[in-house]
Automatic annotation (TrEMBL):
Pfam families: NTP_transf_9. InterPro entries: DUF427 (IPR007361), DUF427_sf (IPR038694). Residues 15-104 form the DUF427 domain. The lineage of its organism: Bacteria, Pseudomonadati, Pseudomonadota, Alphaproteobacteria, Rhodobacterales. Transmembrane segments: none annotated. This is DUF427 domain-containing protein.
Length: 114
């Protein structure tokens, strides 16, 4: 797994926005690089407005990261289903992302370095 996934502090400050709302900003985000996929920014829960995230029934499994819980983003103007995920108890090699949340970028969800 050492060559498959790399986790490091994301350089700079990052934000996530959806439905006209800023869901969070963080200077403590992590960047996860997984072989064959674009890098993903993970935000610490403490830097997110978790009130915008509603846990769903959805779940997924990655053999390299573990079981993910999914969240919809709920704002005044919209609900974006299954737009975020979290590995609350990830496998040992990627324990750094525990209690962090990543977002599925789309025309409704923007993750960017600010």
């Amino acid at each position: 797994m050492a060559n498959r996934i790399t986790i490091r502090p994301a350089e700079g400050k990052w934000s996530v926005r959806a439905g006209g709302a800023v869901l969070g900003e963080s200077a403590a985000a992590l960047e996860l690089d997984e072989e064959g996929y674009p890098p993903v920014i993970y935000f610490p829960r403490a830097d997110l407005a978790m009130a915008f995230l509603e846990r769903t029934e959805s779940a997924s499994h990655c053999p390299w990261k573990g079981d993910a819980s999914w969240f919809s983003i709920v704002t005044k103007s919209t609900t974006i289903p299954d737009a975020a995920w979290s590995y609350e108890t990830p496998v040992e090699g990627v324990a750094a992302i525990a209690e962090y949340v990543a977002f599925r970028e789309s025309d409704q969800v923007t993750v960017e370095r600010i």
